[in-house]
Amino acid sequence: MPHYVLTLSCPDRPGIVSAVSGRLLRHGGNILESQQYNDLATDRFFMRTVFAADALLPELQASIGELAHDFAMDWSLRDRAQPRRVMLLASRFDHCLADILYRWRIGELPMQITAVVSNHPRDTYRHLAFDGIDFHHLPVDRGRKAEQEAALWSLIEGTQTELVVLARYMQVLSDALAARLAGRCINIHHSFLPGFKGARPYHQAHARGVKLIGATAHFVTADLDEGPIIEQDTQRVGHHDTPEDMIRIGRDIERRVLAQALRYWLDDRILLNGHRTVVFAV
Ligand SMILES: Nc1nc2c(c(=O)[nH]1)N[C@@H](CN(C=O)c1ccc(C(=O)N[C@@H](CCC(=O)O)C(=O)O)cc1)CN2
């Protein structure tokens, strides 16, 4: 029996859970897992429900669409058996790319990788196995960023990519491209945001003399390192740690934070709540 995941958000009011569960029951739905949250500050309701049903997706979508209209819902319904289509972007540092490829290879990240894209040549990753995944070298030559982004966008569209992961991709996306990728582009920033935005956060952290460093996975917006935060983690450092030590310690934090954020996205556990997120963790 297919398993479906329904995510929704709408203005809060009594009876949302009852209406949704009743509608699913009407189609023989058996709820397997359900989480909800009411943001009292915005009076907005968020819900994620996993259910089993013999009914076909189009029938369910039509029925839930009616309900969604009545409750002014933003919603999505997906067959959990359908793997998501994800594109991986990286620059010189490949530790996050290598980690995601390994987790995907062993089945921890159930997704279809549509391509690996870099502004550096294939040889940069000569020790990484791409297992038949297409690699695209899209260099950013001075004054030709628009052309590079046009090629990148055509690849994203041409491969029907649902999510773009910036796995230490060190080029700032233009406002236009960030807008096109709103809610479907996740970046790993190598600091505990909002501290130390920009390209060299570990050197900034060392100069400030912090005792904790971290990493942040967030949705990409036009405003650099300002997007809705999905996942964060930290680790202690000391006066003896050099910027190089922090870069080494930070690699592990970046890997686990990005992998967790990607697992949440693949399992429809992230809902946007304005410039914040609701994350229905396991
Ligand atoms: N529109 C956005 N684009 C990107 C974001 C984002 O939040 N919004 N995050 C970055 C990743 N990043 C930090 O996490 C980051 C990347 C690059 C830079 C930067 O200053 N890059 C320089 C070039 C550096 C180089 O070539 O090595 C630049 O683009 O001029 C800062 C932060 C990914 N894109």
Automatic annotation (TrEMBL):
The gene is purU. PROSITE patterns: ACT. HAMAP family: PurU. The keyword Lipid metabolism does not apply. This is Formyltetrahydrofolate deformylase. One of its GO terms (biological process) is 'de novo' IMP biosynthetic process. It holds the Pfam family ACT. Residues 5-82 form the ACT domain. Catalyzes the hydrolysis of 10-formyltetrahydrofolate (formyl-FH4) to formate and tetrahydrofolate (FH4). Keywords: Hydrolase, One-carbon metabolism, Purine biosynthesis. It is an enzyme of class 3 (hydrolase). Pathway: Purine metabolism; IMP biosynthesis via de novo pathway; formate from 10-formyl-5,6,7,8-tetrahydrofolate: step 1/1. The active site is at residue 225. GO terms for molecular function: formyltetrahydrofolate deformylase activity. Belongs to the PurU family. It catalyses: (6R)-10-formyltetrahydrofolate + H2O = (6S)-5,6,7,8-tetrahydrofolate + formate + H(+). Its EC number is 3.5.1.10. NCBIfam families: PRK06027.1, PurU.
